[in-house]
Amino acid sequence: MQTLKIVITGSYSAGKTQLIRTLSDIETVSTDYAVTLDEERQLKQETTVALDFGTIAINEQLTLYLFGTPGQERFDFMWEDLSIGCLGYVVMVDSTRPGHFAETRRLMDRFAEITDAPFVVAANKQDDLTALPVSYVRRRLGVPVDVPVLPCTSRERSSAKLVLLGLLKQIAARHLAVQPEEA
Amino acid sequence: MALEGTLQDMSLSDLFQIFRLGPKSGVLVLNSGAERGVVYVTEGCLIDAALLSAGRTVRAAQEEALIQMLLWENASFVFRHDPAVSQRANRISHDSDWIVMEGMRRRADPARALPYHKISLDTCLQLSPLPIRTNSGVSLDMNQWRIVSLVSSNPNLRSICETAGIPHAQAIRTVAELMAIGMLEIMIPPPTRPQPRPRPARPLLPAATREAAFAGATMAPMECIDERPHVRRSLLDAVIRRVNGL
Known about the structure:
- The complex is a heterodimer.
- Chain A is an alpha/beta fold.
- In chain A, strands 2-3-4-1-5-6-7 form a 7-stranded mixed β-sheet, sandwiched between helices.
- Chain A is built from 6 helices and 7 strands; from the N terminus they run βαβαββαβαβαβα.
- Chain B has a 6-stranded antiparallel β-sheet, covered by helices on one side. Chain B has a two-stranded antiparallel sheet with strand order 7-8.
- Chain B starts with a strand and ends with a helix.
- The chains are: A alpha/beta, B alpha+beta.
């Protein structure tokens, strides 16, 4: 059995756990526990302190693993371990919380230090009629033009699927650039 | 379901741009100390506004209320979707660009209205790719027009100042005004991402072997381990087909 790994990251309460739950074949493994900080408790009753884990069976020999990182910066020591051997990563951002953009930018910078794997940004909660448009999210996060910023509603499988496909296309494009003879 | 934050996270001028882009309908409520601002938005247009003092008496209304709110350094805000706002009468005659520009002109330091943007002489600028309204009610002044016309042919604001002979402080002020109405934005630098730091070599102990197997990667026992997974294109195609079928 061969496994491939994709990491879902993002700031606190961005929708990482939900994206994995929506895509996973299995009941996801989460390690949420009660929130301790007051400002975090206003957003979520429980938070992911270790990681979320889900799988997508590709065939009998191959499984895609989805790992969600803990959102809070105080757990960033775990990001490095999670990034080992990952094919690529999704940066989730809540499109209705501009206050999270600065933290998301720091997170993107940190991941760029850890890994050069391809990534996409998923602008989550686009089903909310007040959500900020993808173009504004791109501008505020300073996302380079070659990195897709994709609209996302993490609760909807069709939307979550498009985010994952967007990342896989980025990975395939990188693969083609590095190993053109295999194309 | 609401858009929430503070003006330090997102300026009022940005909010007005977003309302127009949507276009969105609803009520924006801002709280700054004891003062409260209420803005009614229909299909992206600002149709009414009031600025209330601590005793909930109206201190300013319509355009003047909006301009006063634009002068706030910070406030918390909540914008809720509400299509019923369209039933209200339109009491604002100027468009949001005009109001924003008027607010910027009354500020001693317009750049402070965009706290998350750092405008300096080294800032690279570009015309905003976000759609702007063609019938904007703003009339640009000479300096604004000169900067707009020079943005595409100059690498940064310093170069624009030298070409146009505009004093530095004035240029920064003018750029802030143009950014506030969505005509200019700071250029995102090209994707020259730093290389990830090499990790120290780890002996190929069972734990490392487990990691390699876990990630589907082939790791070599070299000084710096290449931890990038090496995946055949056919495997990637299989993954894409499977995800497509979800």
